[in-house]
C-alpha cells in the first residue's frame, strides 16, 4: 500500500472497529494507481495468551496507538505480502520487542527502496515453508500458509480460536464501503473503480474474481497455488478479513471455496 493515504490525514478517515472482544480492524481509504478504490486494512488480534498480533499494519495514528496500548503487548507484526509493508518501520520503532514476520523477497525490496531498517525475525520461504515456525505461543493459536505461488508472495493466517482468516491480496471483497465511509466519496465512483469492482467482488458467481485469480495471481505456478488452496480449505474458518474491501463476517469458507473453485477442483471449468 502507498505511504500516502487518500486523503492524506489517516486520523480523519480511518475507521477503527472492534469486531469482537479480541479483533480490531483499522480500515483506511486507498487508491491503487491513484484511481482505483481498493481501500486498505490492518488487523489486530488479541490472542488467548494476551499477546497482540498485528497484520498488515496501517498508519500508527495517535488513536491507533492509544487503542493498541490499551489492549495489551504487541508481540507480533506481520507484512502479509511484499506489497503490504509500508508502515512496518513506525510500528517496529514503537514496539521494538515485537517479532516481525514477512515473506521472502520483502527484505531485499525494502533495502532497494531504502526503507527503515526493520529486523525481520521470521522470513517465510518457499524452500522450507512446511517446517516454518514462529514460536510456541503464536503457533498454538494460528495456522498459516505461505502461498509462494501467489504473485505477491502471500502469507495467509487463520486465527483458530476466532475462526478468522486474515489475508491481504488472496481475495478481495469490493466495493471498499467501510474503508471510504469517512471520506465523503462513493466507494464505487470512477470508471476504473467500477471496472475493477466487477472483477473483485464476491457476490453471485464471482466469475470475474475467479478469472483474476486464475489468469493473474496464480498463473506462474497453478499446481503450487492449488496445493496451498487445498491446505487453507482444510482449515475451520467462518470470517474473512481482507485488506481490500469489506470484512466478510460469516460464510467466509463458502466464499473462499467459490472464488478458488477452479484450483480446488484441479482444473478450470
Automatic annotation (TrEMBL):
A Pfam family assignment: DUF4336
InterPro entries reported for this sequence: DUF4336, RibonucZ/Hydroxyglut_hydro
Domain of life: Eukaryota
Protein name: DUF4336 domain-containing protein
Organism: Eremomyces bilateralis CBS 781.70
Amino acid at each position: 500500500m502507498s505511504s500516502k493515504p487518500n486523503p492524506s490525514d489517516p486520523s480523519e478517515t480511518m475507521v477503527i472497529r472492534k469486531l469482537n472482544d479480541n479483533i480490531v480492524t483499522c480500515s483506511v481509504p486507498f487508491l491503487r494507481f491513484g484511481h482505483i478504490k481498493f481501500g486498505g486494512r490492518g488487523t489486530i488480534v488479541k490472542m488467548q495468551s494476551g499477546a497482540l498480533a498485528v497484520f498488515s499494519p496501517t498508519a500508527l495514528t495517535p488513536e491507533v496507538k492509544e487503542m493498541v496500548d490499551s489492549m495489551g503487548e504487541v508481540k507480533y507484526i506481520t507484512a502479509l505480502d511484499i506489497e503490504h509493508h509500508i508502515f512496518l518501520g513506525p510500528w517496529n520503532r514503537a514496539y521494538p520487542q515485537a517479532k516481525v514476520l514477512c515473506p521472502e523477497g520483502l527484505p531485499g525490496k525494502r533495502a532497494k527502496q531504502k526503507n527503515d531498517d526493520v529486523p525481520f525475525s521470521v522470513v517465510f520461504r518457499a524452500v522450507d515453508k512446511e517446517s516454518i515456525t514462529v514460536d510456541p505461543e503464536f503457533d498454538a493459536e494460528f495456522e498459516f500458509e505461505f502461498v509462494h505461488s501467489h504473485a505477491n508472495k502471500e502469507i495467509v493466517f487463520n486465527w483458530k480460536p476466532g475462526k478468522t482468516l486474515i489475508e491481504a491480496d488472496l481475495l478481495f471483497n469490493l466495493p471498499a464501503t467501510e474503508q471510504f465511509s469517512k471520506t465523503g466519496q462513493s466507494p464505487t465512483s470512477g470508471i476504473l473503480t467500477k471496472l475493477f469492482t466487477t472483477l473483485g467482488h464476491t457476490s453471485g458467481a464471482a466469475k470475474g474474481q475467479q478469472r483474476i485469480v486464475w489468469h493473474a495471481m496464480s498463473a506462474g505456478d497453478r499446481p503450487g497455488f492449488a496445493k496451498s488452496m487445498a491446505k487453507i480449505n482444510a482449515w475451520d474458518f467462518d470470517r474473512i478479513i481482507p485488506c481490500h474491501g469489506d470484512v466478510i463476517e460469516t460464510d467466509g469458507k463458502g466464499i473462499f471455496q467459490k472464488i478458488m473453485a477452479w484450483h480446488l477442483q484441479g482444473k478450470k471449468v
